[in-house]
Specification:
Length: 226
């Protein structure tokens, strides 16, 4: 009797042309045509974005040209910045900017090689439904996540992304560097991501699903006899 409808993918908003991504890249000398790994969202304790700083440090030793970008703010902003500075990657391969308006995110995602969704190692968070996951799908961007659960299952089944080891940043960095340096994988995973958004998470489809649930509930109430 419980129906779960997840967050929706805004297919029209995030269907940005490649020119939009090139425009975003052109604004940063440190980016250029280098691979870009993005985290865009809250910097709360539950997100554990300091993991991305450790991942960037491990990746820097393997491929110093891979860039990591954090867009966002929150209680852990200083912690993340401090960790990146401690690991000597802040301003080298790891960069932090304020969160941009939602209307600008299509351009950012268009410039992204792999988008991430992150959480601390807490099984209770495996059932999350974070906006950033669905925005990346709508933009046709491969995803990298560091938790298990239904999203990890989806990425493995569809090829729309990779699941990183939350406890081993070195193994995760090796997996991520290999992915972003494989243009065939990036293209195919992006196609799979967009297909997943269209087939399972479009706003219109989920709205129809909600309507059907409510209509069935009303019909059940009408037929109930006290």
């Amino acid at each position: 009797r419980v129906h779960v409808i997840p967050n929706a993918a805004d297919l029209d908003l995030f269907n940005a042309p490649s020119e939009a991504g090139r425009g975003f890249r052109a604004g940063f000398d440190w980016l250029g045509n280098r691979p870009l790994v993005l985290y865009a969202g809250a910097l709360g304790r539950i997100n554990g974005v300091d993991y991305l700083a450790r991942l960037a440090a491990a990746a820097h030793a393997m491929d110093p040209e891979v860039r990591f970008l954090v867009l966002g703010k929150g209680a852990e902003l200083e912690r993340v910045s401090h960790e990146a500075r401690r690991l000597a990657v802040l301003g080298r391969s790891f960069f932090m900017l304020d969160m941009v308006p939602k209307a600008d995110m299509p351009s950012v995602l268009s410039a992204t090689t792999v988008a991430t969704s992150l959480f601390v190692d807490l099984p209770e968070m495996w059932a999350n439904s974070a906006n950033k996951f669905f925005d990346a799908l709508a933009a046709g961007r491969p995803l990298a996540i560091n938790y298990q659960g239904w999203q990890a299952d989806l990425l493995r089944e569809t090829g729309a992304g990779i699941v990183l080891d939350v406890s081993d940043p070195y193994a995760a960095a090796a997996q991520l560097v290999q992915a972003v340096r494989d243009p065939t994988w990036v293209e195919q995973a992006g196609i799979a991501a967009r297909r997943l958004a269209e087939e399972q998470f479009s706003r219109e489809a989920l709205t129809r699903q909600l309507e059907a649930v409510l209509r069935d509930a009303v019909a059940g109430c009408d037929g109930h006899q006290d």
